[in-house]
Amino acid sequence: MGGIVIHLPQGSGDAGAEPYAEDAVTLRLGPGEVARFGRGSATTPVELRLVDEAISRLAGEIRVTDDHWQLTNHSATQSYLVENPEGAGEYLRVPPRRAGTPIPFEFSRVVLPTRRNTAVAFQVFAPDHVYLDPDAMGGPWGSRTVTAYSLDETATYFLVLAALCEPRLRDESPVAVPTTPQIVERLKGHAACARLTARAVSSHIDYLAEEKMRISTPAGCEPGSRAARRNGKREAVVGLALRFGLVREEHLALLPPRTVA
Amino acid sequence: MRRDTSGGDGTEPLPPGYRIGDWEVTTPIGAGGWATVYAGRRVGGGSQEDDVALKILSTEGLAPRQARKVADTARREAELGRRARHPRLIRILDSVVISEPDRPFLDGAIVLVMERAARSMRDLIDAGPTEAEGARLIADVCEGLAHLHRTGWVHGDLKPDNVLLMADGSAKLADFGLATELTGTRGTHGYALPMGTFDYLPPERWKAPLGEHGVQVRPSTDIWALGIMIHQVFAAGASPFPGATPVSRAAAAQEYADGRAPLRMDNAVPPFWRALAADCLAPTHTARAAHTAETLLARITDRQVATRSTGGRRWRLPRVALMAAAVCGAAVASWSYATHDSEAGAPAAPTAAETPGRVRVFNTEQACKERTDRIPDCSLGLAVDPLRPYTVDNVVPTRVWHGDVLAADCQFSQGVPIVDEAGTWSAQWFRVRLPRGSARPTAWLPAVRTKDRPALPPCPRPTPLR
């Protein structure tokens, strides 16, 4: 159980509004750890500072529990929303003073209301979510030997992974790994990926490599060369996913049908 | 890569009498993630040794890549069985590939023929073992692990389900499907499939990077699992980490390893075993590496000997003999305590001519260094034969404690290597004289048990006993 990652993007300054964070912030919390968020003050320290006058000094806190996290709303009046960006509108409302709401999403966007048109939001990733192995279903699994890396086969990152592995799974090429534009093109026909950008594909690959599979830096890459590093990572993700059976032939069915080029 | 073959689709029970090579099926035993297991016996055999377990790894319906993986697992298991033979490891007697083109479940299946066990350690834990039963079980597991690690393998999936109990009550390690051969330049680590069982995975595993060959595993991986098992044996199967599910217990173990929570063991675990489990559960690989299966086994063995001899046979220098020795000017006054010797009945001081060297016993356990009451838990053993494993049947009844000064007459540098609790390694031994009246005149002290290095002549190679 490695914990969760909280990411507060740099204030976007939409519609001329003041940015609510000076710099992007990334926090990592291990099991049992807590991060408080809010406007903060000298007497009310917070780990995640959200600069907006409508937000309380201590607006809430996040606590890592098991493979997920809990959200406590310290506001007496405001509800917060936790959205699942991949859930087609799926969200939770956390009412005022609610303590320890378990959050079931691997990806979450926590949204706090402001008095302006924009909302303050930050992201929380819970890469440790546990999935049972296909053969471990329907029985006690506590003492079973399981794969220690579990992937959500309905997540967009899994589609990206399947598309990356496709040429090798179809034995079309023992070495080829598709490029980011090729992945965007390949997944275009999928309902969940109609608006998938190249940047999003790169983020998914980074997430797979760093948070899900924790790939050790591939050796033999030109240090400093960003492209080489990214390619090395991409190849390492494919190599390991296939070697350890994380992506198998049956997963090709998740991809949209191929159109004859 | 693994499918449930226990029920529903894919199941094709083998009928009693089904022949596999020289073996025939008798009854089904069970099914796990990896395989289906049947009881079997050698065709035409009638003795107990002819009873075997047949572990069937089916490749039906698997893509070639996955089928290869099943074959690899079986190969690894058979390979280990062949190379690391030991009474504490389940023996693999044979492996057979079935050819049955008409029966897809069986065609291409790999069958491992193994010794048949009576039950698993999990069953014993559920039944609630006595302390003596638990102690024996843990000693057996340690012995198996010590051998496995010595031969350069890590089990990788040690848990009560993978420790089998034989009809005579002895325990053997089984299921080497995730076993890894230590490679590294100095044989310190190997790489394993990224798999395991939540409750037994060491905390560093959750942060371990996945490399081309898998995740890094080291003997300390098995030691962590052993720590969990020791706790379970004495705490009715409960893990030392709180939580209702394996996931929350894994998170609790992580919290402990990160230093945010203390280790809280059940009070039902006796102090000796609690200390042993705590060492196995040291939070980092580095801290845990000081405790090897070998040193843990030595501690268990030492204690068993001490406990066994407390019932009257515990060593006390016979007063009369001592007096006699003192009066006669002691031709062979070979044993002395330079310190705190009054309560043990101070024997005569050694005469210089008779004692070429003196070695003062050193115990790495801080708690033992500070005590002078010679409790059994702080005693150390002396080996009968430095060429044989340092186990319970290879130590003399005489015990020694921190600070004791022994008379050594020669040294032997090619004995069984011993690693102490601090990780110091040495294959050197000192031959020390035993008090008069002992069954044998001398015994052997591992060099890691003293800081002294007297200039002593080399001993003649000990003649093997037995």
Topology:
The complex is a heterodimer of chains A (261) and B (466).
Chain A: E1 4-8, E2 25-29, E3 34-38, E4 48-49, E5 60-65, E6 68-73, E7 80-83, E8 91-94, E9 101-103, E10 107-112, E11 120-125, E12 146-147, H1 156-169, H2 180-187, H3 198-212, H4 226-243
Parallel strand pairs in A: 3-4
Antiparallel strand pairs in A: 1-2, 1-11, 3-5, 5-6, 6-9, 7-8, 7-10, 10-11
Helix pairs in contact in A: 1-3, 1-4, 3-4
Chain B: E1 19-20, E2 23-31, E3 36-42, E4 51-57, H1 64-83, E5 92-97, E6 110-115, E7 119-120, H2 121-127, H3 131-150, E8 153-154, E9 163-165, E10 171-173, E11 180-181, E12 190-192, E13 195-196, E14 215-217, H4 219-234, H5 246-257, H6 271-280, H7 285-289, H8 293-309, H9 319-327, E15 335-336, E16 357-360, H10 366-369, E17 405-412, E18 418-419, E19 425-426, E20 429-433, E21 442-446
Antiparallel strand pairs in B: 1-2, 2-3, 3-4, 4-6, 5-6, 7-9, 8-11, 9-10, 12-14, 15-17, 16-17, 17-20, 18-19, 20-21
Helix pairs in contact in B: 3-4, 3-8, 4-6
Protein name (chain A): Serine/threonine protein kinase
GO molecular function, one term (chain A): protein serine/threonine kinase activity
Organism (chain A): Streptomyces morookaense (Streptoverticillium morookaense)
